[in-house]
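Incident log, structure service

09:12 report received: a user says their structure output differs between two submissions of the same chain.
09:20 pulled the input from the user's history:
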Amino acid sequence: MTRNCVLVATDLSEESRRTADACAGLPGSPRLVLTLVTDEPDRAGPLEAEAARLRERGADVTARVVGRGHRTVANALVETAREEGADLLAVGARGRGRAVDRLLGSVSEAVLRGGQTDVLVVRGRTAGSLLSRVLVPTDLSATSVDAARRLVAGGGVGGGLLLHVGDRAPEGLAPLAEELGLVPLHRTGEVVPVVLGTAIDEGATLIALCRVGDRDAAAGVGLGPVAEGIGLSAPCPVLVACPRAGLAVQVRELLSAEFPLADEVWRDYHETRGDPSIDRVFGVFAGTNLVAVARCRRHPDGYEVDAVFTPAPFRGRGYAGRVMGALVEACQNEDLYMHAVRGLEEFYGRFGFVPIPEHRLPPTIRSRYAWASGDLVSAGVTPMHRPAGWFARPGRNGRAER
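09:34 re-ran on a clean worker, output below:
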């Protein structure tokens, strides 16, 4: 857990002193920027006195007064951490309870939500070194494993537990625990209460976890519900790490055995289901999560593209375009037809689809909208056709789509 620069937020309270003391004991003796957000210049003296106290402990400390202006205290801290190049932002919490913190607008909560680097929330009295007995919850996702490895690689971890909460202990738990020098532990139940209870039972001096798991990272979520619940309610300090490992994004055709994955994604899309005997299904995987799907179905008289769907949490990240590119590239030797949702004609036009009159659709494909009695405008769809012809996804073999 070696750090180069730690921004330590202070309001000169006892909680802030405990936070600063915890940071002064971090391995590697990082530079501490003791930061007071205030528009009262007369508080600079007490701030410098606190910095001097930490220097007596051997810490490398710079005292900095930051004007609040029109910002919130939390925003001022986050912006100052960025200016200083801090790789950890530490803030104390008064431990009044989550409901009260929400009511009063806790700075620690706001920093936890808005932090753009790792965040250390120090709540309660620490017994011994911050890293003497660490509890590391993990779901074995790529982001979670990377955060755990970085914690241990930094040095200073005296020992602790690698905790997985779920119905059964995954095969990878014990090997990862051995690699990290931690004791594997499996518990069942609701994740947040189990983690908090385990921290109390095991006398944890720190809970360390990633801000997001793979699924939340793929969706662009800044703070996952598990990290939020633990960060706001833990009985001991909590280190919430930003994900550093990028999720591997893979675009490919699904195997028949993987069709249930697509069916699960399609549950909110007219409960569509794939049929391996007549369908080719393509998907985008972010890590292990299927985040977008598209289908090409073989009819007796033609091929229809439909069920192009990205669940709401994963939209706005270009996944639909990537899955469509994979489908069209794989099926480029066939004439492709579709009933495009009105308003998306331009999107599908990027893949070579052009609007056509309804009567040009193959009969079995056209029959799917027979209930509209020819009024496809009211049905909200536009018939489209892509003639068979060459297509390559951008960046494939150095070629661009055309």
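09:41 both user submissions now match this output. Likely a transient worker issue. Closing.
09:42 reviewer note: Confidence is low (pLDDT under 50) at residues 95-105, 396-402. Residues 145 and 176 are 8 Å apart (CA to CA).
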